[in-house]
Design goal:
heterodimer, A: 401 residues, alpha+beta, Butyryl-CoA Dehydrogenase, subunit A, domain 2, 4-stranded mixed β-sheet, 4-stranded antiparallel β-sheet, 43% helix, 13% strand, globular, B: 370 residues, Butyryl-Coa Dehydrogenase, subunit A, domain 1, 3 domains, 11 helices, 16% strand
Chain lengths: 401, 370
């Protein structure tokens, strides 16, 4: 890693970006200004830092990439629109996409010209994404897609999506899935906001009704989409696990220390111990991320160990809100309508469960660690060798006769 | 920051691992822990003579290998994995580090070569009344009598204190903390081996009554002692990590070969998830340990916080993993003949050795200026 790169990145951010606000990232960014910012970031050589130059990246190291991420923590960047594309779809395209797809899509992604979403989960396919029921059928020299996706972040703003769909129901579930790049601006695609338990609507439901995909927009091979999906999920876990939480998290160590001081609780030994514990947990997650990155640089593939960071991050989110609730007491349940600090706290509490579900539940992460890191025997699988059409999937309140 | 071992460090790791697998298997650990000495003198001679381990961090000018805390942590990790009863923590970690932390050039020249060669077994006596190892808790008194220092007080939890040739004692001279060197056979020193939870680590109580001592020159003895304890905390955390890793490895191996209900128990999510959580604890603790050892060598300003994080993590994680190891093994894990209880005992005793989680969290809070 070159210190000069870090310095250059820092200097650019100092000159071009505002400090992080309390509202959380991207809360006040509109899409046009986000796009413009991303383009300037790319012009400055700070987008796609470790991606190949041939497709618009900077061709630098993952250490440089990480240095930028560390510096960027202090700034208010419009990352929310682009993380799916930059963290998941882009890396998967680089891994598996055809030369044409990479040449066509990577540069506009890096410049913020095209926003991406990831279309995996369905109402009937959560942890078991491979049981998805969205169908893609051949039609002339292309494909036609019908079905429903859910939990799709930024779909309302997306120009493009990475979608997995069933292309062969007559083979076992993993063997008949294909990944495509789909144009989200077409009559067969409709997007509906999904209100989640925080009261906000950061996710969407996406309905496909005869949406069309050109034949050359398959990512990887036809019916080999499960491998592509697994790869994208791995990128996702690395992106989530490696992302350092913003310094201003309402249930984070720094915020809570301030809160405790303001309340005069900082001489209370129990409070001090709990904060020390929270500090330890935050440091552990951060140091694990750094260590994994260093090992990757030394040529050791992190493999499924990204799941460790994902799991630890989810547990930290919950632990932080536990500590915060203990410290705030009754003030954690009711507040003046104008109290922004309290609203941030509520946001942290109410979004904590998502950390343990989104991108693979804690239980799925533990299975991955058990199976793929520790090499434990898999559970007996009743769905491995059954043609998909004969499989029971989704939520079934009434059994078929 | 560097959180990955280099080639030489990995080589050291492999050498020590092979050596201990060969010379200190658990059958031997069990034999040694029943002896009055509680350690294997022949093994210690080889650790010194063949591998030069006691002087690992002692500079070459004093007869040591002049390596860093990362290398020390590598050795401690292996000793922890093997549960080897040895005065390594006492002498190579506490004794050598405390001597090096003083400003007493003459004492270093006198004493360190023997410690480095393994011919002198040193240790450090700080805790009193089961209390912590913080300099502020020291009550033992040092006074000048006839131009010589003498010590009075009671020290406890002194690692290998009953057999050490050289005891470094923290005591108060007036208002000032001082570090004093006392010979193992000194007049007025009564040493009692303590019975305890962990038969693989020998702890002693030392009673000092007008015991002659040599005061070690130190501009800031309290600071030197705190630094010593930070380094010792990192070394002990490494030992804990080694034990944790061995427990995890054995549990995973067992879950693959133990069949119940017609399946390897590791295929049941109830067991698999327990093992996955053990693995997470290992990964996080290893990251904290590597960072702390790196700060000790390269970024000493960051050491106090990093040592606190590593110690908190490794202490908590090792005990949890040791307890869950018994759970994964079920009934066989609760027998005397199975090794799980030896790790369980070691995990709890090393968690509490330097004062325990409550005191350590309070200390960390101080350092965080909460």
């Amino acid at each position: 890693m070159s210190e000069s790169f870090r310095e250059r990145a820092r200097a650019w951010l100092d000159a071009n970006a505002a400090g992080r606000s309390d509202d959380g990232p991207t809360a006040h960014w509109d899409l046009p200004s986000a796009r413009a910012f991303q383009a300037r970031l790319h012009d400055a050589g700070l987008a796609g830092i470790s991606w190949p130059a041939a497709y618009g990246g900077q061709g630098l190291t993952t250490a440089d990439e990480r240095a930028f991420a560390e510096e960027a923590r202090d700034f208010d960047l419009p990352t929310g629109y682009f993380t799916i594309g930059l963290g998941m779809c882009g890396p998967t395209l680089l891994d598996l996409g055809s030369e044409e797809l990479k040449l066509r899509y990577i540069r506009p992604l890096l410049r913020g010209e095209e926003v991406w979403c990831q279309l995996f989960s369905e109402p009937g396919a959560g942890s078991d994404v491979a049981s998805l029921q969205t169908r893609a059928t051949r039609d002339g020299d292309g494909w036609v897609v019908s079905g429903q996706k859910v939990w799709t972040s930024v779909a309302q703003n997306a120009d493009l999506g990475a979608v997995i769909a069933r292309t062969n129901p007559d083979v076992p579930k993993h063997d008949g899935i294909t990944m495509f790049v789909i144009d989200m601006h077409q009559p067969g695609v409709s997007v509906r906001p999904l209100r989640d338990m925080t009261g906000g609507a950061t996710f969407n439901e996406v309905f496909f009704d005869g949406a069309r995909i050109p034949a050359d927009h398959v990512v990887g091979e036809v019916d080999q989409g499960w491998a592509a999906a697994v790869r994208m999920l791995m990128h996702e876990r690395v992106a989530i696990g490696g992302s350092t939480r913003g310094r201003g998290s309402a249930a984070g160590f720094e915020s809570l220390v301030e809160e405790v001081r303001a309340r005069g609780l900082d001489r209370d030994p129990v409070v001090r111990e709990r904060l020390a514990e929270l500090y330890v947990h935050e440091r552990l997650l951060h140091l694990f991320g750094s260590r994994l990155a260093q090992e990757a640089r030394a040529g050791r593939n992190p493999g499924a160990r990204g799941s460790v960071g994902k799991l630890a991050g989810a547990e930290l989110a919950r632990f932080g809100t536990d500590v915060a609730a203990e410290l705030l007491g009754g003030d954690a349940i009711a507040w003046d309508a104008s109290d922004r600090e309290a609203r941030r706290w509520a946001g942290a509490l109410l979004s904590a469960p998502a950390a343990a579900i989104a991108g693979g539940t804690n239980e799925v992460q533990r299975n991955i660690i058990g199976d793929r890191v520790l090499g434990l025997p898999r559970e007996p699988q009743v769905d491995r060798d059954v043609p998909f059409r004969d499989l029971r999937v989704g939520t079934r309140t009434e059994e078929r006769p | 920051m560097n959180l990955v071992l280099n080639e030489e460090q990995e080589e050291l790791q492999a050498t020590v691992r092979r050596f201990l697998a060969d010379r200190s298997p658990l059958s031997q650990v069990r034999r040694v822990m029943e002896t009055p000495e509680g350690h294997d003198a022949a093994l210690w001679d080889r650790m010194a003579g063949d591998l030069g381990l006691p002087g690992l961090t002692v500079p070459e000018t004093y007869g040591g290998a002049g390596l860093g805390q990362v290398e020390l942590s590598v050795v401690m990790e292996e000793l922890g994995a093997a549960l080897t009863p040895s005065p390594y923590l006492a002498s190579a970690v506490l004794g050598a580090t405390a001597l090096l932390a003083t400003d007493d050039e003459e004492a270093k020249q006198d004493l360190l070569p023997g410690v480095a060669a393994g011919t002198t077994i040193a240790t450090l006596a700080v805790a009193e009344n089961g209390g912590g190892w913080d300099p502020s808790a020291v009550a033992a008194r040092a006074s000048l009598g006839g131009g010589r220092w003498v010590l009075d007080g009671v020290k406890t939890l002194v690692p290998d204190g009953a057999l050490a040739d050289l005891v470094l004692v923290a005591a108060r001279a007036g208002d000032e903390l001082g570090l004093f060197a006392v010979e193992g056979g000194a007049a007025g020193l009564t040493r009692s081996a303590l019975a305890g939870l962990d038969p693989t680590r020998q702890l002693a109580r030392l009673e000092l009554a007008r015991t002659p001592a040599r005061r070690l020159v130190s501009e800031d003895a309290a600071g030197a002692l705190r630094h010593t304890m930070d380094l010792a905390a990192v070394a002990l955390a490494a030992e804990q990590l080694g034990g944790l890793q061995r427990c995890l490895d054995r549990s995973v191996a067992y879950a693959k070969v133990r069949y119940q209900f017609g399946r390897a128990i590791g295929s049941f999510q109830a067991i698999k998830h327990l093992l996955a959580d053990m693995h997470v604890a290992m990964e996080l603790s290893r990251s904290a340990l590597r960072y702390a050892a790196w700060t000790a060598d390269e970024a000493p300003d960051e050491l106090p916080l990093a040592a606190g994080v590593a110690r908190a993590s490794c202490s908590e994680a090792f005990f949890r993993v040791a307890a869950d190891t018994i759970q994964v093994h079920g009934g066989i894990g609760f027998t005397w003949e199975h090794d799980a209880h030896l790790y369980y005992r070691r995990a709890k005793s090393s968690q509490l050795l330097f004062g325990g989680p409550r005191l350590e969290r309070a200390q960390l809070a101080d350092r965080l200026r909460i």
